Amino acid sequence: MSNDHRDQTMTRRTVIQRMVGGAAGAVGIRRVGFGHQKTAPGGAIRLERQATGSEIWQVTTEQYDQSNIYCEVPYCSKDSRRFIYIRKNPKLEGPNNTELMVVELGTWKQHRLDVCVGIVGAAITPEGMFYYLKEADGGQDLLRADLSEGRPENVHRLSNRWLNSLGTLSADGRYYLCGKRMDEKYSLFGILRIDLKTGQETIIDQDPFILNPHPQCDPGDPNRVMIQHNRGGKHAPDGKLEQLTGPEGATLYLLSVSDGKRTGLQVGKPYTTPCTGHQAWIGKTGRILLTVAASGDYAPAKGNLLGVRAGQPARVVAGGYTFAHVGVSRCGRFFSCDDWKPPYSVVIGSTETGRTAVVCESKSSPSGHQNTHPHPYLTPDLKWVIFNSNRSGSPHVHAASVPEGMVETLAKA
Q1: Cβ atoms < 10 Å from Cβ of 147
Q2: Which residues contact 137 (CB under 8 A, 6 or more apart)?
Q3: What CA–CA distance (Å, rounded) separates 44 from 105?
Q4: Does the structure show a pLDDT above 60 at 371?
Q5: Which of 106, 191, 346, 413 has the fewest CB atoms inside 10 Å of its own CB, making it the most exposed?
Q6: In 92-223, which ranges are E strands?
Q7: Would you say the pTM of this structure is higher than 0.85?
């Protein structure tokens, strides 16, 4: 379970090591033989065609601290023509030192959308509306931009500070939610709800162990958000992380957006091995896909990728790999994961049949830096997987084409 977003000024860290052909839009880019590189007009480098048939493109070429943001949901426009990534530019001074870069899939042309405070607060809707935080005039603003149009607009001026997680939007678009540190001693954390209609800010939940909450709103229920509960987690008063969890390990619960009422889920101890801290909603089904520590009854051969819904026990969705980070397609029918052992393959599968297939080898060498973790996600049209890798020696954002016929095969019972 990764400590992805402690605070806007802190480096993202993880303890995950303790746990566990024919792509649309590529017209005009000549394919070359296996292992031969080619540079596209947009600057991306075609690295190779792997044995699976997947073509691997290194999208970024400059030496920045950069990543695909995360993998729980696709950070793409609704039509899958564009995706967004972040990079920290050392030439930028002040708090807005992170660039938001939009890439056109296939041509690999990219442009800067805006600058922001970093990954904290970032959120995206199924319609491709991207939200982010930006410092301005001594305060902090919440902005949004449709990735298809690329025109940022100011949404809300924040009165709360110390946000410490990715953001999320309720299914009806009315509420923006984000994790928040509640005190200077890092001893209490909360969930901030912003009513985008009235501008009202409300803390709807508080707990010492939601230090890394990963809030995710249910795409099918505007009154429900999933929260990660790192039981026993602790920071020192100066903000240094002392432990991500205690012996209890992590679990998940649901939170009512309207009144903050909690509903526990039967994952983590005592129901399963501890949650790894990687989970996502399975479309609008009301079910959640997650990984747990790959041991005992949930060893790779038996399956550590689970599905759960409120009031029911968790069940294995797929096995055969040491599943780590989780993403679910916008349609909810497919998932993407990284297999947590060399060569850190990118695996996709069906949430309905449980069938899986390797799209490609990421060839990354994960470290404590999140942008060395593959974090793969499927584009909404299911034709590309966007992931991180430091196979070149530095972290870069990559795209892998999903081999022709793979998705259709996975969907067959």
Answers
A1: 23
A2: none
A3: 10
A4: yes
A5: 413
A6: 98-104, 110-116, 123-124, 129-136, 139-146, 153-158, 163-169, 175-181, 189-195, 201-207, 216-217
A7: yes
